[in-house]
Design brief:
Blueprint lengths: L2 H5 L4 E4 L6 H31 L6 H27 L5 E4 H34 L4 H4 L2 H27 L8 E2 L6 H5 L7 H32 L5 H29 L7 H25 L1 H26 L2
Length: about 325
């Protein structure tokens, strides 16, 4: 037996889920499965479009492609198990599996936070320093900023897990949530977790505050800078920022609500968590494609090429 098993009486946890009513769980399954599939398809389509379209090789779309990869990974950490659990009467997960889920959930969540911050910086440089844009946002700089985002996610998650893994867990083995997260897991620890709670709150809160300050500062500077532009120039610049601002609001709002305050047992916490784990990853590709003319145009071209290839293959296959 490993060190974790010897220090804990618990090897398996029961997850209460979102609703107890079996009929409501079946309704949720019917609703959430298409949403998850749309998340994977939508973000996957953006990744494909960015990679194959020569017109989308600027730093903004480079980061957008990686953001879509993170969205798929982030959603896949929680949603597939949550959806399959909706069809089971007793929802269980091993303690090790719970800790793994927590690690990757926070890893991809923080990586997304840092990527959104990097994308705000990219828009600031593009609008406020256009003559130096290609120099500042060079290929090397873009890869370095991307690496910092992934590394930040790893460091953040390691801190969270190292704080949690040393706790003794003795039950009851019931987590009042629909997936494994830190505050619900702390409630099954057989020791006082107030210090660990403060460390987790500080770790998440500090990162969120710094990222949020950078984001807000970037857009305040952009808005001040745009006062000297023509009306047409302002509209064009703001249209490129609008999608990013909407995505930032949808992501940061629920996360700051849940992770920048002490834990609670409010039912609203579950509903807020459902929004940013299930729906937000699906909405992001919709927001970027509906509001971005370049992405829509590239997707149409990609769709046209696909139809041309299919037609050519069909003509060869059915040629008499």
């Amino acid at each position: 037996m490993g060190p974790m098993a010897s220090r804990n009486n618990l090897t398996e946890l029961i997850i209460t889920g979102l609703f107890q009513d079996p009929e409501m769980q079946r309704v949720c399954f019917v609703v959430f499965l298409p949403v998850y599939l749309a998340t994977v398809v939508g973000n996957g389509l953006i990744m494909l479009t960015v990679n194959v379209s020569k017109s989308l090789h600027s730093p903004m779309y480079f980061f957008l492609g990686h953001l879509s990869l993170v969205e798929i990974s982030y959603s896949s950490t929680v949603v597939p198990k949550f959806i399959t659990d909706l069809l089971t009467k007793i929802k269980t997960i091993s303690l090790e599996g719970c800790l793994v889920q927590i690690f990757f959930f926070h890893f991809f969540g923080v990586t997304e936070t840092l990527l959104l911050t990097v994308m705000a910086y990219d828009r600031y440089v593009a609008i406020c320093k256009p003559l130096h844009y290609t120099t500042i946002m060079s290929r090397t700089a873009c890869h370095l900023l991307l690496a910092v985002s992934w590394l930040g996610g790893i460091i953040h998650s390691l801190v969270q897990i190292l704080v949690t893994i040393r706790l003794p867990f003795c039950g009851p083995n019931v987590i009042d949530y629909f997936f494994c997260d830190l505050h619900p897991l702390f409630r099954v620890a057989c020791t006082d977790t107030s210090v660990e709670g403060v460390i987790v709150l500080a770790n998440s809160g500090l990162l969120s505050v710094i990222s949020f300050v950078i984001l807000v500062s970037s857009y305040i500077i952009i808005l001040v800078h745009l006062r000297n532009h023509s009306a047409e120039g302002r509209c064009k610049a703001l249209s490129t920022c609008a999608s990013h601002i909407m995505v930032v609001t949808l992501f940061f709002g629920p996360c700051m609500f849940l992770y920048m305050r002490p834990s609670s047992t409010f039912t609203v916490d579950k509903l807020v968590a459902i929004f940013y784990t299930v729906f937000t990853p699906m909405l992001n590709p919709i927001i970027y494609t509906l509001r971005n003319a370049e992405v829509k145009h590239a997707m149409r071209r990609l769709w046209g090429k696909k139809h041309a290839v299919v037609k050519k293959v069909a003509d060869l296959w059915f040629k008499p």
